[in-house]
Amino acid sequence: IQLTQSPSSLSASVGDRVTITCRASQGISSYLAWYQQKPGKAPKLLMFAASTLQSGVPSRFSGSGSGTEFTLSISSLQPEDFATYYCQHLGYFGQGTKVEIK
Amino acid sequence: QLQLQESGPGLVKPSETLSLTCSVSGGSISSSGYFWIWVRQPPGKGLEWIASISYYGITYYSASLESRVTISVDTSTNEFSLKVRSVTAADTAVYYCARLRETLGNYMDYWGQGTLVTVSS
User: Fold this and answer.
1) In which element (H, E) is residue A78 found?
2) Eight-state DSSP code of residue B56
3) A98 to chain B: nearest residue by CA?
4) CB pairs under 8 A between A and B
5) Chain A residues with CB-CB distance to B under 8 A?
């Protein structure tokens, strides 16, 4: 299984809505998780089962999708959201999407 | 609150064996429904799953690393370990241990802070 994220990087401003896509090379039902990683830190679980928010994660994060196409959205980008985001299914990770400040 | 902590040498010589241990505190490694995993991240690159193990010893390995890697678990000490044999510079990475919940597609809900291992003579 290959997970392909797009875009690989994006520039956005505080308050923007941001959407990241993860495409699977074959159907994976809704079995996809999303992680946020800041420099020098371990990844942090944001979402599992495609759309279930992990406890403690702000509600501006949302996920959707099933089968082969999934999205992670941030409704109003905050300064602490600038990071790299990864999707994951079983032992496979996407290549990451870096969200940078415009 | 579950905590995971990696330990091991930060520098390993080429062709030698890299050995890391993950100590689990705040919970039992013998809890059902979880696997214990190692993931690595070369400098400036993405995440790569290495291996997984259950408390009762079921193991899974990345196909690309299977021939050089062994994962083990010690329920008496609440630890699990990783060995990578015949290392090269390509094995230089931050190594993370994590807990994988064996449900809804498997996801990693707790991570260690990571430990940088450099392969160099």
Assistant:
1) none
2) T
3) B46
4) 62
5) 28-33, 35, 37, 41-45, 48-49, 52, 54, 86, 88-96
Residue B115: C-alpha distances to residues A10, A14, B65, B106 (Å): 28, 32, 19, 23
Q: Which two tokens stand for residue B10?
A: 């930060």
CA-to-CA dists, residue A8 to A18, A34, A67, B39, B52, angstroms: 13, 15, 21, 21, 28
Whether the per-residue pLDDT at A37 is higher than 80: the answer is yes
- C-alpha A26/C-alpha A69 separation (Å) is 10
> Considering only CB atoms, which chain B residues are within 8 Å of A55?
none
Do B107 and A92 make contact, defined as CB atoms within 8 angstroms?
no
- The span from the CA of A46 to the CA of A42, in Å, is 13
- Residues B98-113 pLDDT 10s: 999 988 778 999 999 9
Residue-level pLDDT at B14 = 97
Percent of chain B whose pLDDT exceeds 90: 96
pLDDT, one tens digit per residue, over A15-34 is 999 999 999 999 999 999 99
Which residue type sits at B33? G
The C-alpha of A66 sits at a distance from chain B's nearest C-alpha, in angstroms, of 12
